[in-house]
Amino acid sequence: MQNKTITKLVLKDGSVYEGKSFGAEVSISGEVVFATGMTGYPEAFTDPSFRGQILVLTFPLIGNYGVPKKENWESKQIQIAGLVVCNYIDTPSHHESMQTLSEWLKEQNVPALEIKDTRGITEKLRDKGSMLGKILIDKKLIPFIDPNTRNLVAEVSTKEIYEEGKGKHAVIVIDCGTKYNVARRLMARGLKVVTVPWDTDVTKLTFPFSGVVISNGPGDPKKVQATIQNVKKILAKKIPVLGICLGNQILALASGGTTYKLKFGHRSQNQPCVVSGTNQCYLTTQNHGFAVKKIPAGFKEWFYNANDNTNEGIIHKTLPIMSVQFHPESSPGPLDTDWIFDYFLEKAGISPKLKNFLADKTGPVPAGENFQSSAKSKYNNYEK
Amino acid sequence: MKNKFKKIIVLGSGALKIGEAGEFDYSGSQAIKALKEEKIKVILVNPNIATYQTSKTLADEVYFLPVNAYFVEKIIKKEKPDGIMLSFGGQTALNCGLDLDKKGILKKYNVQVLGSPVASIELTEDRQMFAEHLKKIGIPIPPSGAAVNLEEAKVIAKKIGYPLMVRAAFALGGQKSGVVYNDIELKEIVEGALAISNQVLIEKYLHHFKEVEYEVVRDKFDNTVTVCNMENLDPLGIHTGDSIVVAPSQTLNNNEYHGLREASIKIVKSLGIVGECNVQYALNPKPKNGEPDYFVIEVNARLSRSSALASKATGYPLAYVAAKLALGKSLLEIQNKITKVTQSFFEPALDYVVVKMPRWDLIKFKGAEEKIGSAMKSVGEVMAIGRSFEEALQKAVRMQSGILESVTDSDFIDKAEQKKYVDTPTPRRLFAVAGALLDGQSVESLHDTTGIDNWFLSRIESIVKAEKEFIKNKKLDKEIFTELKQLGFSDKKIGQLCGKTEFEIRKIRKNFKVLPSVFAIDTLAGEVPAKTNYLYMTYHGGHHDVAPLGQNAIAVLGSGPYHIGSSVEFDWSSVYANLALKKHGKKSIIVNCNPETVSTDYDMSDRLYFENISFETVSDIYEFEKAGGLIISVGGQRPNNLAKKLSKEGFKILGTKAEDIDRAEDRNKFSALLDKLNILQPKWQSFVNIKDAEKFVDEEGFPVLVRPSYVLSGSAMRICYNKNELYDFVTKASILSPEYPVTISKFMENAKELEFDAVAQKGEVMIYGISEHVENAGVHSGDATIVYPTQRVYASTEFQLREISKKISHELKITGPFNIQFLVKDNRPFVIEVNVRASRTLPFLSKAMDTNFPEIAVDAFLGKAKKHEYVYPKSVLVKSSQFSFSRLLGADPVLRVEMSSTGEVACFGKDYDEALLKSILSANKFDFNKKAVLFSLGGTVNKAKFLEAAQTISSLGYKIYATDSTAEFFKNNGVEAQTVSKASEQSPNTLDVIDGKKVAFVVNLSETKNSESKKADNINTDGFRIRRATVDNQIPLFTDLHLARAFVKALAHYNIEDLEIKSYREYID
Ligand SMILES: Nc1ncnc2c1ncn2[C@@H]1O[C@H](COP(=O)(O)OP(=O)(O)O)[C@@H](O)[C@H]1O
Ligand SMILES: Nc1ncnc2c1ncn2[C@@H]1O[C@H](COP(=O)(O)OP(=O)(O)O)[C@@H](O)[C@H]1O
Ligand SMILES: [Mg+2]
Ligand SMILES: [Mg+2]
User: What is the ipTM of this complex?
Assistant: First the structure.
């Protein structure tokens, strides 16, 4: 933690926070967002949904267990544009650690600052909403650039089709910036997984497959028109579909729903999601700035958020077509909703064989008596 | 959701003891509040008089009666509740509940168990059944087996192989558990465990695994969350209660964190828990393959010490929520009390680190072993909050001791001693480790010996390095200053390092504008705006979450960690002082650092600072809040000791002036004052060299009482009967407390001791109460059995006490609470000390007199107190002390001038005998059906004085076993007694009688002289072995003549059926 040059984070509203650099010595600009998860920073940093964002972690000690081998990442590289933490720990201790966080960030050319008052920044972002910002390492002046004007999905998506795992059933993953764990969870069920670029017209694929997963990904869903158009074709063919996060928004838009930007997104590992019409609640990992507003015709609300009542998933009234706003693949975060994959595959007519270290996940089994879900909380997260 | 319950009975945990302390006052109180919100009538059974939960204002009816099947059945029969809650009163309540269920009492009166079903509780309590259950659901547990006798144990040992971990089933705090490496050790531990339990669990000892814990809540709709996870700094093998614990875990990656979380949820669902449950894990730090390699250590299907900690650490009101869930509510129906915007189905996100550090008092126990292990020994704990581990750890060190400033403060005689303390786990290990790092020993090598994770060692190293750096050039610029503060260094410590006073450092710091930020704990790391009053201070910030409350706010300083001499009674006083402020339209700020308290609950004060009771912290808070005043006299000695410094700094202390407090605390000034008012006091003298001491005893003669001043709970006090003892002790005592001169006073033998508690306003007494010790002076007031109203005191004596107290309170211009301790000999009262603060007796007296001293004290602070007329009580209240000797290997269970009790109970009765009997039953396991006793009376005086009691006992049909000379004496005086040979002689001897659990209680009176003088080689005396065996077998033990006689007298008058079942209300209205 020695040679730290004084550097700063500048926000669009003019506020400036001085900090010590422990990452790459480059100035960058991006959308500043905060995340409140207490573990799983390597997973978070490599999550393509964070593309173009300067991530402020509210947990004050980061670096504790270093950086694991590439196989455990969620994509091939660090995706965040920059990092801000309260205290960087340069003495990692863990059997899986291959290098320190600082070494990793430098290697991947990502700047990172140690700024004491991360809580202050968080409170500002929560009150004013996510805003643009830049990390300035030297005197160099760079403009504020809104990453959401770029086609982030195109940036992070795979360029060519690739196939993993073995099994008689194949599932297509439309890669809008997918986390590796989506494929891992599918393969854990003995499936073949074919990952295709974001703008692939799946209906034109020449090999047989049993279902399509529209992955998570960064930015504004309205930016991925190509995918939306392709999904319309998939729906027309009544092919089983599971949308995740951005996939939830894409499915909604493709079938006539609407989306909007949250005042400040959900970026945490403790988002409570209720199965609509039941008292079943699950803790989920989330990482999104947009959400579904109007639920498309033929669909119904599947999940809603117990804190701010925003939509957390939609499901078709008759067909095996569904999507969730949260991350059933977790990583980082709670494993509560891994059953979503089983549920989808079962509805898709593929009965999966799950093999992992904590077998039988608790599904949406309506345990206990059913009752009208409690009065939803007053707190509201719509753009003012 | 409307609920079907009208009346619910809640079981408390009884007296505070090692392994079961104040945390259950917190959980019980929250549960009661949760039930009252639902308009349910609440019946509480808890003899712990000093708790907040037993106040008139909380439950509808409170029964100060033993928490056992016999009494609870009687109460159920009388109250006819439709539900019972077992999980808010620790192991005591749980065991009682299981017993009630087994005996079919709950079914008989159809009382429904709320919360987790009895079946699943039993499952978690029976080690073997539980092991099988976990195997079934595919959760790994250490290779183990259960045995009911030594033979079985040996077989299992052979199968698994040493080292092994041996534990007693159904026992709390890891009682009688230990690690064994061979057959001999196995025999020893197994026999010990079987003495208190009918089953032992034997399992593989998981050397240097990480110990991790999860707090889980589940509603009956199967919704489950883990509110908090915690990681022990100490490796597995050191009881969580004795470990430094950090929340959230620091060295677990996402896989491990969520793998264990998932396992916890799976376990809790499989058990059908409804409410709270905690799961303890052993996690392999270096697993073979990548996957988490872990084992489940145990599951507690109830609120526990850890859940109290988790609740305070995260701001999630666990006990409150658990109570609601027990009523059948869903986690989605219960709003998050802290944020008011999120639900209770939720896992708090922390943006800070919490460090819990245990507080031990092993020095207070003659002969107690210092080593810590799988059996808990600590008597309290503190919780520190910071934004770096270093900051939190150093805070914790200061909170815990009240004396040490930093992990780098160590007083090891030499490197050899330091090494010894690195190698063996004791309360001093942390400091030995820091010392070793200071000497340049590597993190790696320390990890190998201690098993402490490199991460924690590296943090300690960064503290050590910073200190080294600073000492080099002692340069204090703003940057270095900030860095030191961020690493948790106190002003005082920084001063010590560069030769300045803490006042000077404080000035410099304020000039540099290096000030702490006031941050809120909101359970979601600032993600949504939350109105919370739960605060801490950190140097890793740049803004404040709250604005100052200003002049109308009064800060109440709490008690700090519970320890011998300062316990829940002081939290009780703090809480009521705080509540009283509201009545006067004031805003209250509580400062305390003890997670086991009610005062630190989210809904007690307008603002809660989870911070240290130290000059620096209190000053920072006071100045930030721009508060209107400070109350330092309700939290016990720790806040009281700050009087001088705080007033010197110009802060407004409500009540008695600091200099007047000092005139009472400083022995020289105080005795001058007594002489001036010509009030009697035992002859005394303060001295710095042994010559003066010898001169004193030449004039006054032995015995003498030697002690340093300014200490609570008689720590380092000793009665000396001859010159060698005097010499031997003084040298030690002066080491214990160098700042202050040692005083020596004439020890008055066979004197009666009385307590005078009062509240005065501008020197005028507004209310007072006098209580009487059953034991003679020489048994510390904290250990003594106390009765109100007085039973054997002349009106004329009480008159004198009042007059003397008036004079003193006048002279000291006392405003607020105070306590005077009197010795009375031949109807002449001597004053031994005045405490110008709330005393230990306040809750006891307040409840006995149906008034509230702390409230009246606050009235007095604000000049609004009224004179209270003295009303003679309708009933008698007797307080008995709870001892935890059975937890402390090697400790000598004998009453002395030094306090050693860990808690207390008190029961009302129609007369002295009935109250005394109930009270003793509440603190001891007494079996009325066992009609046999063991007497071992040292010295002719004791024998003679106890003869009548012996006659009574045998007339009651008790068989008397007696040690030879005692039996001899009885026979000569016509009392039937069976002689048993000394413990040291071959069996059948006293130990056989005790270990065979043949007797209902044991009386062992030793000639004071011997028990005191034989200190060193006490271990070998027969007396010691009798006492030790008695407590080890959980048989009531009496070592005081007067108490033993009183007990026998009570037994003669009352049988268990005669004891009336009346609620608090029935006794006072
Ligand atoms: N198999 C084991 N190997 C090593 N240490 C153990 C083992 N099992 C328990 N311990 C230690 O003993 C302590 C007490 O055990 P526990 O089952 O939690 O008893 P208690 O009911 O007193 O909490 C634990 O905190 C842990 O440190
Ligand atoms: N001069 C004395 N003669 C006999 N007993 C004494 C004398 N002084 C103190 N004691 C006994 O020692 C106990 C502790 O003394 P005290 O001054 O109250 O210490 P503390 O400050 O710990 O309360 C008293 O409760 C009393 O029983
Ligand atoms: Mg335990
Ligand atoms: Mg005293």
Answer: 0.93
